[in-house]
Amino acid sequence: MTGGTARTTRPRWVAAGVLTLAVLVGGGTAALVTARSEGAREQGEARTPGYAQGYGQGSDPGQGLPAVDSADAGFAQDMAVHHQQAVEMSFVVRDGTRDEDVRRLAYDIAHTQSNQRGMLLGWLDLWGLPKIAPPGRTMAWMGAQDAASSSDGTDRTAGTDHDMAGTDHPEGMAAVDTMDGMDGMGQGAARPGTGPRMAGMATRAELKRLGAARGRAAEVLFLQLMTDHHKGGIAMARSCAERCAVPAERRLAHGMVDAQQAELDLMAQLLAERGARPRD
């Protein structure tokens, strides 16, 4: 448990980040409805490479929908998977600690990223595109250089995708072994050969450790894993902000960068209060 002095001096939930998320989530329905029409309008103004080429299944080429191999589609597919693991880790730590600050942070992450994941999957549905990336296409939308740099410092477990949780559910749900506190959400292991490990994703072994940890140990491990997770997510969101063509999706990506950076600052402070630090 953290001391009362630390709680009174800490900025409460980083107002700028929370405000950004409130705007994004509150406008989620409108963004979902307008993403298709905005994309079509921009198609008439400027043709972006990878946009409105190889149209979504069942779509009309004249509608200017994102292509199956576009950054818009890839970001939505991969970030939906990425978000789901963050949601699952947040539920796990809420069962592993009674610390008010960590539980509140976990709830905020779970609530926000569940809503954002729903928006991403909704866009893919509107565009007539698969909700998960095809085998071998994970992170491909970022380009080889960006995908490699986004994983720097976050991929600490040697091996193949057998070690990674997060790509073998039909709705993009992060895949982990069933464990106490997961409410049956774990669905198994990732397929081998599905591409590079997604930036910042925890491995199955790390998720098992988190599920077994309690008290301060659970808090520290969660904060370290989520720090890695947010760093990877920020790299992905920045890439979408530069590469995606749909305005609503770019706005969501910008908001993710701002909010997750604010949470990174908070998590560093929470770790310091526990005599720990982010992993190098």
Structural write-up:
- There is one protein chain.
- It contains nine helices and no strands.
- It has helices spanning 4-9, 15-26, 28-45, 71-96, 100-126, 144-150, 204-212, 215-243, 247-273.
- Mean pLDDT is 74; it is low at 1-9, 11-34, 39-62 and 152-194.
What is the quaternary state of this protein?
single chain
The portion of residues assigned to helices is: 55-70%
Question: CA-to-CA gap between the ends?
Answer: 25 Å
Which stretches are poorly predicted, pLDDT < 50 over at least 5 residues?
1-9, 11-34, 39-62, 152-194
Order of helices and strands: HHHHHHHHH
Strand content: under 5%
The rough form would be described as elongated
**Number of H- or I-type helical stretches:** 9
Sheet having the most strands: none
Query: Which structural class do you get from the secondary structure elements?
Result: mainly alpha
Number of strands: 0
Query: Any idea what the radius of gyration is?
Result: 19 Å
Mean pLDDT: 74
